[in-house]
Design brief:
alpha/beta, 4 helices
Length: 81
């Protein structure tokens, strides 16, 4: 198989706002492209957001402002790695 199978997708509408990720965006992407792996970015604020993304089939997540603002702690992340 050739081509790409893993994609970083940033919800630019949510990026930096800390209002939660665009769950419906990632649900649709995983549904339309089940053989692809998606890394979610934009809006992730609390640890529960990571659980929601995982439940929708996201492969990973980019954590930025939530770490800077300390709304998700490194300890929480270590528990699931």
């Amino acid at each position: 198989t050739s081509g790409f199978s893993r994609f970083l997708v940033t919800s630019i509408v949510r990026d930096g706002l800390q209002e939660g990720p665009d769950i419906s965006l990632y649900r649709r992407l995983v549904s339309f492209f089940p053989s692809c792996e998606f890394i979610a970015a934009g809006g992730i604020t609390v640890f529960d957001d990571l659980k929601k993304l995982d439940s929708q089939g996201c492969w990973g997540a980019i954590l930025g402002k939530c770490l800077y603002e300390k709304t998700i702690s490194p300890e929480e992340i270590r528990k699931v790695l």
